[in-house]
Write a structure and sequence with these properties.
UPF0194_transport, elongated, 6-stranded antiparallel barrel, coiled coil, 41% helix, alpha+beta, HlyD family efflux transporter periplasmic adaptor subunit, single chain, 5 helices, HH_YbhG-like
Length: 316
């Protein structure tokens, strides 16, 4: 019975007042992270300054990254020279040397075999030790194996470089060039520029600081207009939809600005302390963004409190 009475009172209150939510005024933010852990050597802007797209913001020290880029470019050039050598194949002089080594091996093999053949009958007559005969035979066999190795070496040179080796060389060149290109991009990013027109909201680090990789060096507020970031109480969540018109009351101003709901989260969260409305302190809320569609919106500051009343008549 008590629950029914409370529900009736809540519906009556909603009927008298337009559904509303509290929050803050926000601009879209862009954080420019540090691409490398280098010292800040120049800051070209100040907080609160309006900048155009492409404007210089912060300059980091270049020396170490330039040296690393030069080393990677040298490695890429070296890999390219190795690939050129592989594609050209063996030189004529190398083939001539292989032929000469083969001729020398054949001569040594013939001499070793002849010596072994001379010792063999002497061994049968026991005029020489059997071990000497065995060593001569082994030496002849070894010399003939060296001939076969020299033949294969010459054949390998005459057939040229294998296609697999050329493919590996091309992959090595591509990898070295990619590493150099990556370092070149890092070098370019050491000179931070504004990706979009906006206002410099924050410069967390000062001249001479060395921020860690990924730390924001500059934060920009961008976009044509701010938006209201509000928390919609659970009781009125079914009445708030994307595209629905709204009235935005900015702190310190009496007149309302027209707006439209552009986003509302489907996952609930606990209502933050500054968006509590009476008994709603124990209820869940849903984060929503309401874009301001009219009025003098370009001069509105970020962070001021806002109150949003949602139209009960549906979408615009």
């Amino acid at each position: 019975m008590l629950l029914a009475i409370a529900a009736t009172m809540l519906l009556a209150a909603c009927g008298r007042d337009a559904p509303q939510a509290l929050g803050t005024l926000e601009w879209d933010r862009i954080a420019l992270p540090a691409p490398a852990a280098e010292k800040i050597v120049r800051i070209d802007v100040r907080e609160g300054q309006r900048v155009n797209a492409g404007a210089r913001l912060v300059q980091l020290e270049l020396a170490r990254t330039q040296s690393q880029l030069a080393a990677l470019q040298a490695q890429a050039q070296q890999a390219g020279e190795v690939l050129t050598e592989l594609e050209a194949g063996p030189r004529a002089e190398e083939i001539s040397q292989a032929k000469a080594r083969l001729a020398a091996a054949r001569a040594q093999a013939a001499d070793a075999r002849a010596f072994s053949n001379r010792l063999l009958p002497l061994g049968r007559q026991q005029l020489v030790a059997a071990s000497d005969v065995d060593r001569a035979r082994a030496s002849a066999d070894s010399a003939e194996a060296a001939v076969r190795a020299a033949q294969q070496e010459l054949l390998e040179l005459e057939r040229g470089t294998r296609i697999e080796q050329i493919a590996q060389g091309r992959s090595a060149v591509a990898a070295a060039q990619a590493q150099a290109a990556t370092q070149a991009v890092t070098l370019e990013k050491l000179d931070l520029v504004a990706p979009r027109a906006g206002v410099v909201d924050s410069l967390p680090y000062r001249l001479g600081d060395q921020a860690p990789v990924g730390a924001p060096l500059a934060i920009l507020l961008v976009g044509d207009a701010p938006h209201a970031r509000v928390y919609v109480p659970e009781p009125i969540r079914p009445d708030v939809q994307v595209g629905q018109s709204a009235r935005v009351f900015v702190g310190g101003r009496d007149e309302a600005l027209p707006g439209r709901v552009r986003m509302i989260r489907s996952e609930p969260t606990f209502t933050p302390y500054y968006a509590l409305i009476g008994d709603d302190a124990s209820r869940l809320s849903y984060l929503a963004e309401v874009e301001i569609t009219g009025g003098n919106r370009a001069t509105l500051p970020a962070g001021v409190p806002v109150r949003v009343e949602f139209a009960t008549g549906g979408h615009e």
